[in-house]
Fold this sequence. Notes:
alpha/beta; Rossmann fold; Alpha-Beta Plaits; 10-stranded mixed beta sheet; 13 helices; 16 strands
Amino acid sequence: MGKVFIARQNSYEQSQIDSAVRRVFDSFGGISNFVKKGERVLLKVNLVSGHDISRRITTDPAIVKAAARLVLAEGATPFIADSPGIDSFTKAAEKAGFMQVARELGIECRELTDPVDLPPSDNAEFKHIQVSRQVIEADKVISLAKFKTHGQMYLTMGVKNLFGCIPGRLKAGWHYNVGLNRERFAGLLLDIYAGVKPCFTLLDGVIGMDGDGPTSGNPYEFGIIAGTQDALTMDFWLCRMLGAKLDDYPLYLAAKKRGMKQCTLDPADVEGDVPSDYVFPNVNLPKTRSMRLIPIPFIERLMTSRPVHIPELCIGCGRCAAVCAAGALRHENKHLYFDYGKCIRCYCCHEMCPVKAIKFQESWLVKLVNLWR
């Protein structure tokens, strides 16, 4: 399987980050094994929406700067890019610190736009996926992911980061079409990953997030930077290191259904400062799925946590209603009205809320089942 190198790193001080990122790449023979002179290299960051760096929602700019410097040193041309779900790209990238990195290094920071067809892999389930033209036309893609929990998909790391290659509001369409069935949505992520083929994935886990990620959780000091040529293997190992069960992870279930070799984990794949049997202490995992669900829509709704509104925290921005692909909520005078019959439990409303005014309420059926366990 693919090698995963994990370096201990407890600070975002730039010189330390530069050293740690170089060390990760050097463990694979150096950046020159992935990037050549004259190539145009897309640095795919994690930019969910516009948030202050201190909330640890997005890839830290120190990681982005370190990776960009290595690419520049090879005589290649890096550019920073992503496509947030609802925010203005420029404002979001400014808040995340990516624009400042671009100005300092004299490189581009741009939104992923202009959808074109992604050539499907041989075993792809989804044959007609559109991603940004910039992704297709880049000579190489380096994924700069963030180590976080995720309300809908349980965890978001290397593979999930590439969902951002789908431009803007096209993401909402995919959420609506396959979002309720998490294993099928995970299959979509596998197809995007196989089609984009990032040459390397670098994971920012210095300070990540646990709880109700990817935006409303709590900063968690994992103290690591991880790197790999095989993001699927990395994601599965880190899932285990979080103390989570692989069978609760939709990405693992989708890969297992396809018979993918990465589902058989070999401890020899993990190198660096963290042993394969290490478990991060006291990680708060999302409670949106308390048990493996029966993949029938009606049962899925009964077994899945629902989003609920916290009126006293609401600022009335309306982002939740604007992002809802299912048209399942109405916003009036700082009050939300959910139509749970329409709600597909994608939790985009929760993800896009800037003030944590939407939380998860555990299913009554799951509570009842758990009483009998």
